[in-house]
Design goal:
This protein starts with a helix and ends with a strand. The chain is α/β, with parallel strands linked by helices. The strands form two sheets. The protein has a seven-stranded mixed β-sheet with strand order 5-4-3-6-7-9-8, with helices on both faces. It has a two-stranded antiparallel ribbon with strand order 1-2. The chain contains 13 helices and nine strands. The protein has two domains: about 70 residues; about 200 residues, Vaccinia Virus protein VP39 (Rossmann fold, 3-Layer(aba) Sandwich).
Length: about 280
């Protein structure tokens, strides 16, 4: 089978499996490229070349998994975030562009501070802590997660980006593992914020494949914000910031929790779609 024929076959199977044809064509190039090691340009140049039988078989196996609605990021094993590539597995939530606004606010919060100390709560694949370590080389990072499997992925990502010596990973609930590391200049988090009933309404790639513990298992979607609004402020240095990602429609409630927790200058930052996505507050 030639490269061109394999691309057509994969795109056809994805389309037949319910993936829109325009997406199927793009995904077919990524799937074939991941197995053959060819980028888009090379796929075009080598269109008439035969694909080794073993590679073709592996490619069609990946296509079958995608038809079963396994997320493309899990098939490829990576996802880009803030200009960096991160390893992802089914143990972690797939990075999303909206979380880049948490990073932006955190970078602004540490700018001008000598040797800032930052903790990423519920780090998952490590995207917040590691991206901050890369872009704020003077900072010391701490990251927590309740999942040892997620922490293993995060550790691997830290090593891949050369910041493993500056990011300390700890297993445990929210801020409990870092109580002896206070104070912090920034506490950042993208906590689970989807109620279980809402999870059931999501697209199958999310509902059936991404870890429920990272999406949300508590009936109160604001559960972790309620906790952070109480547990985080005492651990912040003067002028330190609590910065969290929130779900659509949650910004006002989370802002009220932050204000009730004694934080000042509470504000919401919109994402690329204009949805209030990040809430932050400052300890005075």
């Amino acid at each position: 089978m030639t490269v061109a024929a394999l691309l057509r076959e994969v795109a056809g199977r994805l389309t037949a499996g319910g993936i829109p044809s325009n997406e199927a064509r793009g995904e077919s190039r990524l799937i074939v490229g991941s197995v053959t090691g060819k980028d888009n340009t090379r796929l075009l140049l080598d269109a008439a070349r035969d694909v080794p039988e073993e590679d073709a078989g592996r490619t069609l196996s990946l296509a079958a998994r995608r038809v079963a609605r396994e997320p493309l990021a899990y098939l490829l094993g990576t996802r880009g975030f803030y200009g960096l590539d991160f390893a992802v597995t089914p143990a972690v939530l797939i990075p999303r562009p909206e979380t880049e606004f948490v990073v932006e606010d955190a970078l602004s919060a540490v700018r001008g501070r000598p040797a800032p100390r930052v903790v990423d709560v519920g780090t998952g694949s490590g995207i917040i802590a590691i991206t901050l370590a890369v872009h704020a080389p003077g900072a010391t990072l701490f990251a927590t997660d309740i999942s040892p499997d997620a922490l293993a992925v995060a550790q691997r990502n830290a090593e891949a980006h050369g910041v493993a010596g500056r990011v300390s990973f700890s297993e445990g609930d929210l801020l409990a593992p870092v109580l002896d590391r206070v104070p912090f200049d920034v506490i950042a988090s993208n906590p689970p914020y989807i109620a279980p009933a809402e999870v059931e309404t999501l697209e199958p790639e999310v509902r059936d494949w991404e870890p429920r513990i990272a999406l949300g298992t508590h009936p109160d979607a604001l559960h972790f914000y309620r906790r952070l609004s109480v547990e985080a402020p005492p651990l912040l240095a003067a002028g330190g910031s609590l910065i969290v990602e929130v779900g659509q429609g949650q910004a006002d409630d989370v802002s009220a929790l932050f204000s009730a927790g004694g934080l000042k200058d509470v504000r919401a930052t919109p994402d690329y779609a204009g949805i209030a996505r990040v809430v932050s507050g400052v300890k005075r």
